[in-house]
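FAQ
Q: What does a multi-component entry look like?
A: The components come first, one per line:
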Amino acid sequence: MNQSLRETVKNLFAKGKVKSVLGYREHPLSQAVVATLITRSEDADTLIFDDRCVQNLARALTRDLPLPVGIVVKGCDGRAVSMRITEGDFAREQVVAIAMACAGVKADGKTFDERCQRCEMHVSPLADVTVGDVSALPKPEKTRAETIAKIKTMPPAERFAFWQKAFEPCTHCYACREVCPLCNCAVCVTDQNAPRWIEQTAKPSSNLMWHMIRAFHHAGRCVDCGECQRACPEGVPMHLLDLCLAEDVEELFDFKTGVKQGGKWPFLMFDPQDPDSWLGGPHRG
Amino acid sequence: MSDHHEPRIVGFLCNWCSYAGADLAGTSRLKVPANLRVVRVPCSGRINPLFIFKALEEGADGVMVSGCHPGDCHYISGNRYAKRKLAVIRRLLDWVGVEPERIHFTWLSASEGARYAVEVAEFVEQVRALGRRNPMARQGVAS
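Then the predicted structure of the entire assembly, as tokens:
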């Protein structure tokens, strides 16, 4: 796969389709896989793609890069790039998606990540070129519904206790925010101090506020790359809450993030037929 | 201290309809429970989820949001956008384990003073019935 990736990138440079490419390379000293930006065709030989490429490079996309920029994307990363185009961060022609046939990645080096085990989109829906054999990709072993089922069945008090315990180790380091491909607010709400909406001290109420607002901002935007949870030094399962809301958004608005090109984020539009039943009545649990 | 706990509820009312409806309830000499503390907002579409979460964190026992009936928005469609946001806010609160009964969303026009009084009274009783403190309330906040 590395060889065909390199050929593809060289080809894109030769045809003038890209001025730079974001990809993965192996660090010469540590052998760790790191993100890299190349601007010359000959550097394409440093690019790699394998199951160690855990990072979501959509985070590194900025308009400061030499555009058009090529980006090596897994399925989830491609959805994030697609969402950023939908949100107007980039024009479609400014980004060239190099979609990899991704079988999943292994953050721990041994087993596929949880996100990959339930992955339904091994190849990016946004693809200008595709690299690798897309016919030989694994089927999902579990579903999102199974993942969130345990929360769904808890009574409210137990649910609240579950999240209190889950968020308890949070130190408000905001690694989850820094790594998220779609956390691009100019000033994050937690950094605003007049008024101070979310306290930055780690305590039960502010932990909950931060993770609730974080989840709400990602409702209908989260692409399930799971980077937040991977980056968390304390192992807080905040991505679980994103998954819960993703289910709601799909159910309410029939919207799956970054899959279809064009369209709008469901909160930026409405349907006059939206039912009032959304606002009340009995609910699950 | 007695065990008696009077619920405190924050109400976000749209300037153009529900707030005037609340005013009508007052000028009509209708009895409206004093448990509701009203915040006037320019439109239900102005309501940021932060408002609701912050009210709960600061110890409100319930939050009521009321805007214009769909189709009657002063800004044409602010309440329709609000409906989508509120639908997800409601579900998010449910996911984290805050009882959905603490949240009440409704549409009230400026002429519905009587209905306003009834809605508020019913909601206050609904929150009172939950009994215990809002779980989201931060430590140290008086209950």
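Q: Is there any commentary attached?
A: Sometimes. For this entry: The two ends of chain A are 46 Å apart (CA to CA).
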